[in-house]
Design a protein that fits this description.
single chain, about 230 residues, alpha+beta, SH3 type barrels, 2 domains, 4-stranded antiparallel beta sheet, 1 helix, DUF1541 domain-containing protein, DUF1541
Length: about 230
């Protein structure tokens, strides 16, 4: 039987709930579903944003790492000219300047000034097999030396070459192997004023040469001894 109250009809359903209550339940349920959907979408959106952010961060990190690697490779590419067997490679001056004061020109060198030769020494990267021109030939004692660069750095071992006239207070006699020396030559950074020892010595005629390596001309390179060059064929 239907009852009327305040102008609103209420019907009893078969499960004992009123029609109004059932309708309200449906509205509550629908609302809950809608809220759940919004929460779910927000969560998904948040997840997407997090994923996107993570992906962006990862990409940025990858890019930064690649840049760092590239910089390191670039640096390696540049430093590839820096040090070979303690020789300093392209740390040598591109223009060695004039011969030291007091050095005696060779009276009858095998390779007079102006001779065209092929270098066999590898004092600097790319030097061996380079074509060169003799610009100076001298009679003196020439030393391979060990020293620690002024200002610090790795010790330089068996550097070739330094001549008698490039030593501090040179004596009239050759310095014996193992003898202590102070180097006044400025062939490379950190050499001038460095303390070291003689590794070996030779009395061969010693030469200054001009030569080209990697498209660059090295002038007045010091030093090349006689058995480190051949006549150019």
């Amino acid at each position: 039987m239907a009852h009327s109250r305040s102008g609103q009809g209420t019907a009893t359903t078969t499960d004992g709930r009123t029609a109004g209550a059932s309708s309200g339940w449906r509205r509550v349920t629908a609302g809950a579903v809608a809220v759940g959907a919004v929460v779910t979408l927000a969560a998904c959106s948040g997840g997407d944003d997090a994923t996107s952010s993570a992906a962006g961060t990862s990409a940025a990190a990858t890019s930064a790492a690649a840049g760092t690697t590239g910089d390191a490779q670039g640096a390696d590419g540049m430093s590839g000219m820096d040090g070979m067997d303690g020789m300093g490679e392209m740390d040598h001056r591109m223009d060695g300047g004039p011969a030291p004061a007091g050095i005696r020109p060779a009276a009858s060198p095998r390779y007079p000034v102006g001779s065209k030769v092929t270098l066999t020494a590898e004092h600097m990267e790319g030097m061996a097999e380079s074509e060169a021109t003799v610009v100076g030939a001298f009679d003196t004692t020439t030393y391979a030396v060990n020293y620690t660069p002024v200002g610090g750095g790795d010790p330089v071992v068996d550097h070739k070459w330094v001549v008698q006239e490039e030593l501090e207070n040179p004596s009239a006699n050759p310095v014996p192997d193992g003898g202590e020396i102070t180097i006044l030559a400025d062939h490379m950074d950190g050499m001038k004023g460095a303390h070291g020892t003689v590794a070996s010595s030779t009395k061969q005629t010693v030469y200054m040469v001009d030569y080209t390596v990697a498209g660059m001309t090295v002038r007045n390179h010091k030093w090349v001894v006689e058995d480190e060059m051949e006549p150019r064929s």
